[in-house]
Amino acid sequence: MDPQTALDPRYSDDKAGAMPWPKAEERLAAAEVYWLTTVRPEGRPHVTPLIAVWSQGALHFCTGPDERKARNLTGNRSVVLTTGTPTLGEGFDLVVEGEAARVTDEDRLRALAEAYVEKYGEEWRFEVRDGAFVGDGGTALVFAVAPRTAFGFAKGEPFGQTRWRF
């Protein structure tokens, strides 16, 4: 399903156009580092960098079951994932809002494990066991975040803000 796409004229140059969602998906797939925001039990945000893969319309990340982000997700599945260019005058930033859903299907996990190796190399090879990734660092739970709303921020000329609603 294609999202509803709109350019926000309040934050966009007159020459800007809305980025088509397939182009945003390409950027999400190509990014190497993402920032995940979760919510602590007392309501404070927690932000951490991580790696992820884009597959079947969702960003997928993994984390140890005892890590802060995993503990936060047990109480509140709402997350924000961001990626982009750390410059002001050029590049494109993306923000994905959604809900983290645990992935436990072993066929799906095997495909995701292979996607990690394809994207990040052999040092990110995982085995799949008991509905999770298993690697040198131990067990890692895998989560999928399908966008509920996403934003794209074109920097430079022309600057613009695209919103996608799913």
Amount of beta strand = over 45%
Q: How many discrete domains?
A: 1
Architecture, CATH level 2? Roll
Q: Could you say what the CATH topology is called?
A: Pnp Oxidase, Chain A
Share of residues in helices: 10-25%
User: What is the strand tally?
Assistant: 11
CATH level 1 class label: Mainly Beta
Low-confidence stretches: none
Radius of gyration: 17 Å
The profile of the biggest β sheet is: 11 strands, antiparallel
Overall average pLDDT:
97
What general outline do the C-alpha atoms trace? globular
Total DSSP helices: 3
The end-to-end distance, rounded to whole angstroms, is 8 Å
H/E element sequence: EHEEEEHEEHEEEE
Q: How does the helix and strand content classify structurally?
A: alpha+beta
Q: Give me the CATH superfamily.
A: Electron Transport, Fmn-binding Protein, Chain A
What is the multimeric organization of the chains shown?
Answer: single chain
Q: What would you note in describing this structure?
A:
The chain has 166 residues and is an alpha+beta fold. It has one domain: Electron Transport, Fmn-binding Protein, Chain A (Pnp Oxidase, Chain A), CATH 2.30.110. 20% of the residues lie in helices and 45% in strands. The chain has 3 helices and 11 strands, in the order βαββββαββαββββ. Strands 1, 2, 3, 4, 5, 6, 7, 8, 9, 10 and 11 form an 11-stranded antiparallel sheet that branches. β6 and β7 form a beta hairpin. The longest helix has 15 residues, at 106-120. The radius of gyration is 17 Å and the shape is globular. The N and C termini lie close together (8 Å). The mean pLDDT is 97.
